[in-house]
Amino acid sequence: MNDFSRPQQFNTFNPADEPGAVALNRGSQSEHAEQAETDNATQPIGVVLEIAGSGSQIALDLQRLGECMQDSDPSIALAGQVGSQVKIKTADGWLLASVRNQRQDRRGDANAVLANIDFMGEGSEEKLTGRIHSFRRGVTRYPIPGALVYPATTQDLRQIYASDGRSAIQIGTVYPTSDIRAGMYIDPLLGKHFALLGSTGTGKSTAAALILHRICEAAPEGHIVMVDPHGEYSAAFRETGTIYDVSNLQMPYWLMNFEEHCEVLLTSSGNARQEDADILAKCLLKARGKNRLAESVGKITVDSPIPYLLSDFSNILQEEMGKLDKATSSAPYMRIKTKIEELKADPRYQFMFSGMLVGDTMANFIGKIFRMPGNGKPISIIDVSGVPSDITSTVVAVLSRMVFDFAIWSREEKTSPILLVCEEAHRYVPNEKNADDSSVGRILSRIAKEGRKYGISLGLITQRPSDLAEGVLSQCGTIISMRLNNDRDQAFVKAAMPEGARGFLDSIPALRNRECIICGEGVAIPIRVAFDNLEEAKRPASEDPSFAELWRKSGGEEDAVVRTVGRWRSQGK
């Protein structure tokens, strides 16, 4: 097996760069790693009782498990325990399996423990040493009842988690070892979408920052757009990315399609909303048609991203309202006109509805948001925490749709894959129970289903996977799950994962902070990982305040309240 290669297009980690470091799954070449295997490694710990398609039942010897617990090799010390790996001898090699559960054998030997295992893959046997090599996912040759079960050693795990040469990023250490590096393959991770899940307080934001930093380091000319609803990630990517918020986003209102215009401008419901929508469509098309670009383009639609003046739109509304042959009263026209005047007058909406945003800046806007060119800063953080809550989902919808539309219309150009990362994804792609029929849910669902065909990768980050739309999580080829405290969330994640990973997923409630289970396309086999520490300057501003510490301090509260009220009244201006 080769160590991680270092293709020209990615600056991936090379063990030669850091003496004593370990490649993605190879481990160090230290003397400790090369020492002879102990007796525990060469003696069986159990026997296969029955075989099924994806797993098996085995009987483990309690005495042998006790002997293994004293072993200096951490992998052998955990042999047979829930979440550990064991290997089974087959006719021409080894089969690797993960222990899902244990129970005492009450019917037979009191010194035996029954366990269910999930098959993970198989490898060939080195004739001289008996070790595993050429490990591969899946099973082609099953063992038979009576086959012996052995503990998997750290040396075995080095071979099992060894890179197959594809470009990858390293994110932590494989549990239960202390030196085997864990990583994810870049192309399968991004090419088939991924999801990062975890309850509040488990280190999810820091884990997301770590993964994105590693991707940026591997692909400094990449194109990554992250929607940040809480303003957490600005601090983490100030040096390696570009930060956009309401002060500098300058997203022109005319980039919205008709559906998004309806969300922002229409305030009615029921039958009245359909009347208003018909009027809006007619007036919007006329307003777009007044631009010179419309003449050069030829036939345009109400969705065409052609700039128009809000004043032109208001005038057209006024003209239509004054016509004697109009089908409705003046009320629908006045509702739309009043809403436009409100948006123009409210300073909170200036980032989008400013009179300065009437020029044709579409190419420049796409270039800066999608990092084309990236100039060594491949990620743009879109901080929507300052966006008024009533149009936040519309802003996210516009950005997401532009990613999708750009990918479709750029198929004749050199492909430029884009990664769209959505924090708090359950807010934007909710399930049927919480659905509000918003455009952002529809476009993100479409990206999840069709995006990979056009070179769009979707990264979903959420603390409530059970609140996500049905089917969206199952579209994610790689799932990175940190601790989930809610039973519904745990069941939802298990249902989205392949059968062979269920044993790993059973340990989700028992994960420590900054630990995760990774299953799917981005890894060779399911693994439990302890994330690397991230440098202070690269961490998101997501730490919880310390009540015990802050409530001991006093002084300056009156001035702080006055300053806060000032910012409150001016809406941060």
UniProtKB/TrEMBL annotation:
Instruction: Read off the CDD domains from this record.
Output: TrwB_TraG_TraD_VirD4 (cd01127)
Task: State the superkingdom.
Answer: Bacteria
Q: What Pfam families does the database record attribute to this sequence?
A: DUF87
Question: Segment Disordered: which positions?
Answer: 1-42
Output compositional bias ranges, type Polar residues: 1-14
Q: Which InterPro entries match?
A: HerA-like (IPR008571), HerA_central (IPR002789), P-loop_NTPase (IPR027417)
Query: What is the protein's given name?
Result: AAA-like domain protein
